[in-house]
Amino acid sequence: MLALKDLDFRGKSVFLRVDFNVPLDEEGRIRDETRITAALPTIRHLLEQGARLIIASHLGRPNGQFNPRLSLKPVAFRLAELLKVPVKLAPDVIGDEVNRLKCKLTEGQVLLLENIRFYAEETANDDDFARQLAQGIDLYVNDAFGACHRSHASVVAITRHVRRAAAGILVQKEVEFLSRAVHTPEKPYVAILGGAKVSDKIPVIRSLLNKANDILVGGAMAYTFFAALGKNVGRSKVEEDLQDTAILVLDEAQEKGVDILLPLDHLVALSVEAPKPSLTVEDFPIPKDMMALDIGPKTISRYRQIIAEAKTIFWNGPMGVFENEAFAEGTIQIARAVAESGALSIVGGGDSVAAVDKAGLSGRITHISTGGGASLEYIANESLPGIEALSEK
Ligand code: ADP
Ligand code: MG
């Protein structure tokens, strides 16, 4: 795909799609600005190259309606502080007023469009809306990795209305690491999958069955597998409608010689809210009024051994309810093992990234993906609509 270095931006009107979908508090203050800082290298590059820069992002879910509480105003303010240049916030996304503002921009100036999801046409990938977005635009850059799995107008359709469409620095880096895991993983390739739901992750598991050597399963997901195998899992979280799929996945793994490992022991409690008493259970049944909320010590030590041998690791989904101290141990220990492994390690997923952060180990992971859904979909489908839409070199 086309990269920033392949294009001359001087004096060009550039439409940059970013992911400024930051969490806001009740008063509309930014709680975490990681997504803004992640886009700074590309923004700085474009400004240094003398682009006339128009930036677009979504924020929250305004469902195609103007909503002042989801205005990008706080983002415009913070972005200006970080860049140390003025950032003008357009009152809208398309239309005459916005077009006038676009025209008035000179080299090195920044215009931030309002929340692009104020228009339902955005999520509908509407071609006429995309044409209006592209009005007066010469070049397009996508640095919104977190939105690349969406066929939306500012991600996909717009690329048909500009001369060239390139990847930003963040998108390039994401694709570089994820594609190594997808196309040329050094073996042993160990995938670690956990988190809340199996349903979100079936396509990823399926794809990993063709590539990984071992799949270590933790989190609530494990109990859908156990239930499917006829185990009595107490009140652990189970997706009843996925049990047939779980069995198919286990059968397919066996055919393909992939080891799917399930927890050997479980930390169980009455509920997340009542962490005590908790106990470690090795055999089924899990007591009928209790639920499994973390992996136990035997599982930790078995998984650690396998992780230590790995050359490539992809991890999505915490091993337990790590948000609660009482059930964080499994996730923290696995994070340590990954950090210490020396493997090419990739962590994707909002909660997984938060867990690694909480363990203070982010700096020791090869690549922390900024896009939860996007990284999973890349691993599953080996590409993304927003990447496919970019120009070739
Ligand atoms: P990610 O955001 O990294 O993709 P998910 O959203 O799939 O991860 O899953 C994270 C959630 O899974 C966390 O909120 C965590 O509390 C929950 N979870 C993990 N293990 C369990 C479990 N055994 N029972 C219930 N919830 C769990
Ligand atoms: Mg999540």
Describe the structure.
This protein starts with 12 loop residues before the first strand and ends in a 5-residue tail after the last helix. The chain is 35% helix and 15% strand. The chain has 14 helices and 15 strands. The longest helix is centred in the first third of the chain and has 15 residues. Strand 14, helix 12 and strand 15 form a beta-alpha-beta unit. It has 393 residues and is α/β, with parallel strands linked by helices. A six-stranded parallel sheet has the order 3-4-2-1-5-6. Helix 1 crosses helix 2 and helix 7 crosses helix 13. The structure holds adenosine-5'-diphosphate and magnesium ion. The site of magnesium ion has 3 residues, from helix 12.
The largest sheet, given as strand count, sense and whether it forms a barrel, is: 6 strands, parallel
H and E order = EHEHEHEHHEEHEHEHHEEEEHEHEHEHH
Q: What is the structural class? A: alpha/beta
Instruction: Name the quaternary structure.
Output: single chain
Tally of separate helices:
14
What percent strand?
A: 15-25%
Unreliable sequence segments: none
Helix content: 25-40%
The end-to-end span amounts to 6 Å
Query: Please, what is the average pLDDT?
Result: 96
> What is Rg?
23 Å
How are the strands ordered across the major sheet? Answer: 3-4-2-1-5-6
Q: What small molecules are bound in this structure?
A: adenosine-5'-diphosphate, magnesium ion
Shape: elongated
The strand count comes to 15
